[in-house]
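Justification of computing resources. Each target in the renewal requires a structure prediction run like the one illustrated here; the chain below, 110 residues long, is used simply to show the kind of job we budget for.
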Amino acid sequence: MVLGGTVSDIKRSDNHSFGILTIDVLHSTVEEFSQKLKQGIYPYQIRDKKAEIYLPIYIERQIGDHIQLVSDKQIIYYKGKKTEDKTEVYIITNPSDVNFVKENSTFNKH
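Resulting structure tokens:
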């Protein structure tokens, strides 16, 4: 799965900068993704031209940054006002991080 878009919201937890990037999706190879795992959670969800990516969020990240997520390489590329770099995405297994996503994901609120 490849997804590109613009950061529209940032939520950070108190656990080592883990958080949620909300993305306005500009292009994606899938329209929807919200599969469940027995252990942990996938590092992203997609629905209705919105996506959330779950990962450590560094201070340089800003609303308006452009991202590209390439899931088979487990990499997210950033192009922002302050930085241009990449980082890994991975299955989220830390219980504190999983709970943060469950409590703060807009996809869990209906």
